[in-house]
Amino acid sequence: MKTRKLGTLEVSEIGMGCMGFSHGYGQIPDEATSIEAILAGYEAGCTFFDTAEAYGPNLLPKNRGHNERIVGKAMKRLGVPRKDYVIATKLHLPTDEAKAKGVYQAIRDHLLASLERLEMEYADLYYLHRINPDIPVEEVAEAMGKLVGEKLILGWGLSQVPVTVIERAHNIYPVSAVQNIYSMVERDVEENVIPYCLEHGIGVVPFSPIASGLLSGKITANTEFEKNDDVRNWVPQLKKENIVGNQPIIDLLWQFAGLKEATPAQISLAWMLHKYPNVVPIPGSKNKGRILENLKASEVVLSEDEFQRLEKALSECEIHGHRGFDESEKNRFLGRR
Ligand SMILES: NC(=O)c1ccc[n+]([C@@H]2O[C@H](COP(=O)([O-])OP(=O)(O)OC[C@H]3O[C@@H](n4cnc5c(N)ncnc54)[C@H](OP(=O)(O)O)[C@@H]3O)[C@@H](O)[C@H]2O)c1
């Protein structure tokens, strides 16, 4: 698979979001099935795997690290040199911990716990999962710089942040990547986050690039989601009225899918890959077949003319449901509607 740069890190141009093996999309698979799916992704050319300390069943504190352990075991099973894959993980930084230990020590402690679960000596990319308004991002940037100096991480990033926060952080220590929500139905980052990142050599890692499955064309207003740990019960685009309202976008994707002998999910990924050279989407799936389908979007190359036609038609569609990306520890989306 072609590669792209996130700061100085080189990654496959499509990564794997591993969250669903532990949280977020209903019943989780057994560990062996998850590991097999991750190995299949690597075999298909994926070298970039996204996890987080928080990803565990129902996001319960007692389940912290469930996903990191799976990713760690899968990489061990792979048995390839450590430099052949890129692992991104994330931390939440509670105010009391930062106050008690200092920002650097608090972050370092979270990182060491993640590394132990991953069974790795370093993480390639370490994100602050959400900004904590009690803690200046400058202090986080400084701490991340120190951790790079200690070779415990190779780069760092921020998630669900506006450009003002990225700029403040990047001025203290270079940010490798920003992980915000981005898909055909969540395009706020196009306004100034992506342009700023492009100008400053920062990668953009869109999460939920298939809009939690909506852009695969396989979800209808009649689709019932599991009640157990399934974010699709509150993701705005998946409210029944928004599924109906966004149908013209799904129709457009089917039209291009027919034209390119591809699937709607692949077209939605090919669209963002064509649009920006610094974007590396991390679609998520618990299903090996869909993981391979999504990774194969790398082979669906839109011509400039096709892209312009798609872009124009998309810009004429009204988008229903909106989450936006400006979130923090005090303003987390989870549970809001
Ligand atoms: N930084 C953050 O705050 C944040 C937030 C959310 C996620 N993330 C990261 O971003 C990754 C991706 O986010 P996401 O999982 O929400 O992305 P997504 O790929 O937009 O949505 C995943 C959902 O879409 C379905 N899906 C994916 N590909 C499909 C396909 N080709 N056909 C049909 N259905 C498909 C999956 O179903 P199945 O599993 O049943 O196949 C799953 O229900 C996560 O795994 C996680 O690592 C980060």
| Total individual domains | 1
Strand elements, count? 9
What's the mean pLDDT score? 96
Taking all Cα atoms into account, the compactness measure Rg is: 19 Å
What binds here, in terms of ligands, is:
NADP nicotinamide-adenine-dinucleotide phosphate
Strand content: 5-15%
CATH class: Alpha Beta
Shape: globular
Features:
alpha/beta; 39% helix; TIM Barrel; seven-stranded parallel β-sheet; 337 residues; binds NADP nicotinamide-adenine-dinucleotide phosphate
What does this structure look like?
The chain is an alpha/beta fold and 337 residues long. The chain has helices spanning 31-43, 66-78, 95-101, 103-118, 137-149, 163-172, 193-199, 240-245, 247-260, 264-275, 288-295, 304-315; strands spanning 3-6, 9-12, 16-17, 48-50, 86-91, 123-128, 153-159, 177-179, 203-204. The chain has a seven-stranded parallel sheet with strand order 3-4-5-6-7-8-9, with helices on one face. Strands 1-2 form a two-stranded antiparallel sheet. The chain starts with a strand and ends in a 22-residue tail after the last helix. It has twelve helices and nine strands. The structure holds NADP nicotinamide-adenine-dinucleotide phosphate. The site of NADP nicotinamide-adenine-dinucleotide phosphate (NAP) has 28 residues, from helix 11.
